[in-house]
Amino acid sequence: MCDFPSWRACRDGSILFLTDKDVAMTKWKFKDSCGHTAITNFFKETNGIDLEGLKNCPPSFLKAIRAGKCQKMMANAEIIDFSDATVKGITFPKRIKGDLHLRDSVLISTVLPEYVAATVNLRRAKFRNTILPKSVGFSIEFYESDLRKVVLPQKVGHCANFYDCNLSGVTFPAYVGVQIHIHKCNLKGARILQRRGNIYLYKCKNIPQEFYEKKWIDIEGAL
Questions:
Q1: CB neighbourhood size of 221 (10 A)
Q2: DSSP E strands, 89-125
Q3: What is the C-alpha separation between 203 and 51, in angstroms, rounded?
Q4: What is the spatial distance between Cα 169 and Cα 189, in angstroms, rounded to a whole number?
Q5: Could you give all domains of the chain from N- to C-terminal order, each with its CATH number?
Q6: Which of 65, 139, 166, 214 lies at a C-alpha separation of 20 to 30 Å from 41?
């Protein structure tokens, strides 16, 4: 299964990609229609280079995505790969069934899906007026992120990981199924709501006193 967005750059300079309208003309399931095999079956064209990911998405395809013509494809894709790109002017479905990859991206005035069923990768992502998912089915990961003005998800099914982040003033998810792992982060003014799951802190600084008072918080190497 290919990632969304996927397209084919043909030898004659044309760009082939599918939209919700194209898939609706077939009897295919949307989850099986995001990749290059579907493009081949639809256009009957095999010549060209198969490409994927938002970073180098051609203008014609990006315009269709921004116009909301690929909502069902995004909602059903196994992986949405918007890594290492500027994410702006894109409306996401409220719920997606797969992974959402946004590592090394810049998110500008972006509202992410309310619910992501699998994982959300936000390593080294930069946030400018960004709204994160309210709920994540499996895991969410941050690395070298400034999260001071970001509202974290309320619920994470398995784990939430934070590495070398600025978490000053953040409120951690009320529900995490297994654990929150926090590594070398600034926790000045951070808060914990009533919650489920364990928290592991390693070499963090400015740890609030309430963290020391919770038996389900394991603190190692505090700075």
A1: 10
A2: 95-96, 99-101, 106-111, 115-116, 119-123
A3: 41
A4: 4
A5: 1-81 (no CATH), 85-223 (2.160.20.80)
A6: 65
Amino acid letter at 53?
Answer: G
Q: Pick the more confident residue, 1 or 204.
A: 204
* Cβ-contact 133, 110 below 8 angstroms: no
Q: What is the CA radius of gyration of the chain?
A: 20
Residue 129 zone, left/alpha/beta (φ > 0; ψ -120 to 50; rest): left
pTM above 0.85, yes or no: yes
Residue 222: per-residue pLDDT:
64
Return all residues near 181 (Cβ < 8 A) that are at least 6 apart. Answer: 159, 160, 161, 162, 200, 202
- Greatest alpha-carbon pair distance for the chain in Å reads 66
pLDDT digits (tens, 9 = 90+) for 70-80: 999 999 999 99
For the stretch 108-141, pLDDT in tens is 999 999 999 999 999 999 999 999 999 999 999 9
Which residue has 């898939």 as its token pair? 23
User: How many residues make up the chain in this entry?
Assistant: 223
Q: Which residues pair with 7 in a beta bridge?
A: 51
pLDDT in tens, 65-108: 999 999 999 999 999 999 999 999 999 999 999 999 999 999 99
